[in-house]
Amino acid sequence: MEIFLSLSILLSFGYRAIKKMSLDIDPSEVFPLFSPVGRWLLIIMYFFGTFHKLNSGFMSFESSCAIPFMNGLLPEFAAQYALSKWLAIYGTLIIEFVAMLLLFSLRTKYYGMLIGMSFHLIVGISSFGTLAHFSAFAIALHSLFLPPEFGKRVCHDPIIPAFLKKKGFFSKLTIFFVILQIVLGLFLGYTRHVFLTNTLFATSSVAFIFLVFKHGRFGSTDKLYRMSSSFSFVNIIPIWFFLHCWSPYIGLGTGGTLQMFSGLRTEGEISNHYIVQKPLDLFSYQNQIVYIAETIMPVLMPLREQGLGMVLFDFQRYFTTRKNTMQLPMKIRIDGKIYLINNAELLQSFAKEFFSKQTWLENRYLSFRIVDHSFPNRCRH
Fold first, then answer.
1. Helix, strand, coil shares of the chain as percentages rounded to 5?
2. Cα(38)–Cα(175) distance, rounded to whole angstroms?
3. pLDDT single digits (tens) 306-328
């Protein structure tokens, strides 16, 4: 999503620069061009965030990722009740879908913003994972639905200290918080302690949601914003992104398609989705799965221990394009057949049978997730 939004910003800036024959472009000239793309990205995120989860993996107590997220917020005794688990599963589906619908109407988008931002606040502070970065991005996209006069209303609000309204101080404060985010991000990477990162996210998000609650309602005199850009070319980006997120169901990549924590399984010509019960066989990238029966490679041992697989395309890419050395012996299973590879000759024979030419575009564009069980026994990202 960040790549698609960044692309729209760069294209919009380039468009204005060419039109003016100058690089001296005011942000107010670029914002109306790319902001409709950001609005559609958020709506598409909510759509697939709901649609992908309509599967047996997400709807099961054993494997639904909604439950550990809820457990990261509730006291231990409350998390054990079946009612809490059902609320986590169905509450996630309902909130995401309702937030999306409310964003379509001028009368209701105020409530859609508040519901959506509050939902992502909860996701971002759950002790189950570290999703503050994703939630912060999602909350920022909600701001694209605010009235154009929102900033002026905030500046005129007496509750906001006068020193925060000074451009110079605010710029320095922004730089400070960006540096603080980097420092806390490095701290998180080294220690895996999420408290400080989540606290910074929670503090800034609560403050922003409060301002939206107070000043985010559309008035009768507010100017309307567009859902399509006057720069026609960037309107292709949300369409491209929608098709990209549809990839798991047509045999293309499964990574980066907004199916995070959804429990969706479409590989190996098997689908656990309640609506798309059989993937459309338009592409064959997901058809064959490699399971590791025996290996001495540390990177592959977790797959063997948990019985997880890799799509054949990704398995080949790992050992060819990425130039990783295949350490032998290795025993793998494809389509129910076991292959023992313990010397260079057998490796060449295996590659000749299963490996195929991979283009630069395929290697750069396609991304795949680890293949879970048909009936997962735990939540996996």
1. 55, 5, 40
2. 24
3. 999 999 999 999 888 767 788 88
